[in-house]
Amino acid sequence: MKEKIDKGDLYLLKEHSSLSDSQLGELLEQKSYANITDWQKFVKYLTLVLGAGFLLSGIVFFFAYNWADLHKNIKFLLVFTLLTVSVIGAVYPKLNTVVRQVSLLSASILVGVLFAVYGQVYQTGANAYDLFFMWVLAVTPWTVLSRFSPQWLFYAVLANTTLILYFLQVTSDDLLFYSGLFLLLLNVVLYIVPLILGKVYTYRIESYYTGIMTFVCSAISTMGIITFIFVNYDRYSRADLKGLYLLLAAGSVWLIGSFMRCLKTKDLLIFSYFLIAIFSIVFSILIRIADFNDGALLLYAIYSVGGTFAIVKLIMNQKKVWSHE
């Protein structure tokens, strides 16, 4: 199948050439938009991923149901066998690339199962954070070399879970605001690194991954700014508030940066995230400065309806502008 061209690149080509609107439309249909073959390939790989996922889920539930009756050697033998098969499938050159990538994803999941089995059998006393931290370290090289968006998405979930468990089980409440800051920085890194690796190794990270990571970063940034609006400064020390100020700065930089990127790439999804973030922040300011009375509730209702309509209108107008540029 021919390699798809990002529509943002085609719009950029039109800006710097004599390409007409009709020619641009034809190029978008041929080179950018999904056709029947693309959808068939998508369904094929979707069923493959779902099949692997259901198989792994069945394995996990099998262990959970029969765990007490299994000898420890049987437990390790089953996990090692499945892990070995997955690794062989990931490196076997005659298999389809996607099959190898799904096998690698399965192996990454089974690594966590192996750590859990080891901890349970030998009663290591490790908490959940220790397990997830070792899991992240073990699958990091595989993820970097995978060139597979679902692998990166799994790694992002794993890394976020590890960081959350670190702040819940290892640190104290004094780092409450820093936890939000580090979560934001972690997800920004998880957003940028695959894009850089894609350019270095000439592969494209899927749009759903960048869309999800953009949403996560925008959500954390928005919640950080809203926290700054509502926080009671008398309850926290200067060190705690420093973390809040850093979170505010990082969140603001992300929102502004994502907005500038969406203007450059003509990405409506990121544009909509930015509008929703601004809507939420302004709504929080209204709640902060207004009392909870009948007039304030009416104001909130009017703002909610009007703001929602304005967001939809702005997105539609921006889509028309970008489609005619």
Automatic annotation (TrEMBL):
Key word Zinc-finger present: no
Keyword Transmembrane helix among record annotations: yes
Alphabetical keyword list: Membrane, Transmembrane, Transmembrane helix
Pfam families referenced in this protein's UniProt entry, alphabetically: DUF2157
Transmembrane segments: 45-68, 74-92, 104-122, 128-145, 152-169, 175-197, 209-231, 243-263, 270-290, 296-316
Residues in DUF2157 domain copies: 19-152
Protein's name in the database: Predicted membrane protein
Higher taxonomy: Bacteria, Pseudomonadati, Bacteroidota, Flavobacteriia, Flavobacteriales
